[in-house]
């Protein structure tokens, strides 16, 4: 069955001698893998160029639930990024890396799709993206993935990463955060603006990677965050 859909390119890689496999988050069918032939035709080259990380697209494709890799008929750019500074490009790369690990194939999530689409267009309009962006993004994304930290009882002394809530109990078999880092974390999850020192941002991103891991989403080997921090 053919369909048309908005789509967000996540990543692509060479497959064998003559093809590229692209991971694309579609509005209508969730995460899909598409095969594109690598040849000298202008149409083929344009398809591959348009599949740059986080490109906002419209596609015409064939959906076959029995096949892991789908066929892409047509691809067009739906939104052209205007802001091409290095930090913005790296932030888009960070989003791409996270989503490629967090999304499940063929799981439709229109609200998440709209959030990612809007996030990218909003970033494109900013000259200076907030230094806390990557941390805030992970917290916001967790809501769409069903693993968001609870904000209830946030006056308590600890936050339990395993149960995703605030507590006064320290269980040696579970992971908690406390003290100054907890204060930053709490202020972010209740959507307060806060200036966070570099070393605390580094600590918070590791905590959030760990939090995702505890809740069965492995964000290991994401390199773009360190590069983003080096530009701040």
Structure, described:
- The protein has helices at 42-50, 86-102, 110-124, 133-145, 179-189, 198-214, 224-230; strands at residues 2-15, 19-26, 30-37, 56-62, 69-79, 158-160, 165-167, 176-178.
- Helix 2 runs parallel beside helix 4.
- It is 38% helix and 25% strand.
- The mean pLDDT is 91.
- Strands 1-2-3-5-4 form a five-stranded mixed β-barrel. A three-stranded antiparallel sheet has the order 7-6-8.
- The N and C termini lie far apart (47 Å).
- By secondary structure, the chain is of the alpha+beta class.
- A hairpin with a 4-residue loop joins strand 6 and strand 7.
Low-confidence blocks of residues:
none
User: Number of DSSP helices?
Assistant: 7
The helix content is: 25-40%
Strand order of the largest sheet: 1-2-3-5-4
* End-to-end distance: 47 Å
Helix-strand pattern? EEEHEEHHHEEEHHH
Specify the overall morphology: elongated
Taken as a percent bin, the fraction of beta residues is 15-25%
Tally of extended strands? 8
Largest sheet: 5 strands, mixed, barrel
Structural class: alpha+beta
